[in-house]
Write a structure and sequence with these properties.
484 residues; 21 helices; 7 strands
Amino acid sequence: MHERLIIKMKNYILVETKGIKPAITLDIWSSGSGDKYLGVSIHFIVDSSTKGKWELITFCLDVLAVEGSLTGERLSEYIYNILKKWGVLPFVCVTDSGSNLNDTSCFSHLEEVINCKIFHLVCSCHSLNLIINDGIKMEKKVNSLISRCKKIVGHFHSSNIALQNLKNIQIEMNPNCVPVGIPSYCATRWTSAYKMLSRLYRLKSEIVAVSKSDDVIYEIVPDEREWEVINGIAKFLQIFKEATELLEGDAYPTLPWLIDTIFILRTVLRNDEVFQDIFLKRNESGYNRSSTLSNFRKELEKSLKKRFVDGFCTCDIECGDVGHIAALLHPRTWNLQFFPEDLRKKAQKILKVLYNNQVPPNETADEKVTCSTQSGTLLESLRMQGTKYMKKKSEYHQYIELTVNTLDVDALAWWPRNSHIFPNIAKLARQYLSIPCSSSPTERILSVSGQIDAFDRKLLSPSSLSMQSFLKFNGNQFKKLGWL
């Protein structure tokens, strides 16, 4: 069955990606037995116009055991073998910013082997998490306060008596509630800082009550001012959490949303008025300014500026152009309203080049004035034939000058309705809108591998783990396509 599904999937990918290039995401994972695995996912858009909507497709290509030193060149060989097996030639690859896959030799060597440019994007969600970690690390008071919060959570996790006491007090204060614990913060786990701090603040009264009978909590419980700082930090991190959840989606194009998201984050972090309205507690004397929160904001802004250039986090300045084109091809972000004028013009110029290259040889990018003089003078011909001989706007110019109601526009539904008007640009949209802006698809694949590897299955052979990961992750898509 495994081999039969591989053949079906390979043929499906080759048919559906004809004329376009897919995107891939990569990540590396260690199994419970210490083996290293390379996870690879592929992403493309299927033109299901008959259903009234395009469809984003994600497949797991492989979870491959990798051996030896994980140098960039060595990894490029593994990647090449997987691409060769599937007959895939991607034009964009997304990885996180902390793995060996970011070794510049990896993609330079891969490009030499396949003789094709591959744009390398860094996972935006991973970068957002690193910004949070930078802010916590660089603002000493925040770092110290979060360290104490981690000790509080750690105490509840390590002491069943303390946890039960916390839950009992929750029921005493609110008999109708369902008592909950407090999630821990892990620097490598996206949104975990927010989840810990927001839950702590929500259980503020209960934790203070516990501290009266628990010496460990009593020594480190925050005071009233520190609780407000915790609440302020949680509000900051809530925006990052919502941004992460938006950008790691897999049912809609995510790369175009990145520009808007980074713009909003920059506005919040730079604008004093927005900062005061959202984050600072108002009292009778006006805003109660917290230097700790202000400094934390500045550190976040500094890290955001370092990790995102022109709205995108890339390893190659040209890769930002890929993101800009994706935004230009999404009907919600096509006007690039958050772009500086020079970047907007640059993105439009690149799209025009791509469009001209996309136009079939028997067509012309711009229809020029063509006049017959058989009926007499040129003026007479134009007068008789009217607009037939007037210069028509190209498909590209019609698209650039388009007016779209951008509220809640679903790109996957908009393009099938308009692809007959913009057939060549629609092909570009299918290619660029399929690019994920995070490596979360591969994270999900390797999470599936982790579940399979759990407990007594740690003795699975690498080939068995790879096969089971492939079947489990792709299973729903196989059923949808009628292959299972």
